[in-house]
Task: structure prediction
Amino acid sequence: MPHLNPVDALDLDSELDDDERLIRDTVAAFVRDHVNDHVAGWFEAGTFPTHELAPVIGKLGLFGMHLDGYGCAGASAAAYGVACRELEAADSGLRSFVSVQGSLVMFPIHRYGSEEQKQEWLPRLASGEAVGCFGLTEPDQGSDPGGMRTVAKRDGGGTSRSSEAESGGDWILNGTKMWITNGSIADVAVVWARTEDGIRGFLVPKGTPGFTTSEIHSKLSLRASVTAELHLEDVRLPSSAVLPGVTGLRGPLSCLSEARFGILCGVVGAARTCYLSALDYSTTREQFGRPLAGFQLTQRKLAGMQVGLVHSQLLALRLSKLKDAGRLRPEHVSLGKLANVRAALDIARDARTILGANGITTEYPVLRHANNLETVLTYEGTEEIHTLVVGESVTGHAAYR
Result:
């Protein structure tokens, strides 16, 4: 009887085209050659070699790979999904670095920026010469971004109507942003602020007077990732710093949908790594005179992990196809993030129990992934928020308040 392939039991990667399989293999090779032997040490030390990895990742064309022009690869959603999967198979911090750059920084510039903003920033961000961050979450406003306190006013205390917002004059920004990936190392921040006309996006370059950052330490999760707080105190920006193409929450929420797609695909890689670690360990570790894999309770765990992994792979593939067809809705993305992060976390936890005490060390990747997934469960939309998005979609009733 032939064995199921634990990596891809249903041979779903056969649905990929040649370019998508090439991207899969290229990213997997990059992770193998540049990340796998070092990531446990980065996690333990609480560091991430941004400036060493960014040019390599840029050369591979992974930053903003799903965008067209300006140095971007113009790859399919399915290709972006498998790239995120192979990145997160190493660590969620690595995938987060790439998806923040592409989906939260490059995407809004590409979609809503002026031609001058695109020309200035997109080629540099695509190559890895520049690094960006996305400032939406605040210390007191996480799941309800509409309540943000960061404000932008026209110079002199007044504001202008949105039709005049880019016509001249400076903006003054004040506020604080929290839990910002890449925040302290970014060359440019996409900061969302409240104006009289609604929420607007601003490009804030590093070194702008009044713009400072402070790195967040003592994390127990996503340690191989840079996380910071952004402080804006009377930050003066020219009118050319405004993203002219959008006003209101539609702007930042569309960016989050892009990034969440990368998450729902990426966590499949984390789940796969945990499952394979547990499967390998169970076949070599002996207790009571035989391998752990020979016990029924262990097989029950392994079979459950295989089922969860297959479900996640199917969902990621289907949503990738919908995105490429232009039919992916925000509700689909919420469904995917809710289901796949939950499944990945369950797989990581079950895998840890098979490894026993060895599972709590950095010698094995399982608890590192589990700790990271605890953050992935709540960032870019908590499990509860995505539950309510799906609930509203199926009932027609919003239940957020």
The chain is about 50% helix and 15% strand. The mean pLDDT is 92. The longest strand covers residues 170-181. The CA atoms of residues 93 and 225 lie 5 Å apart.
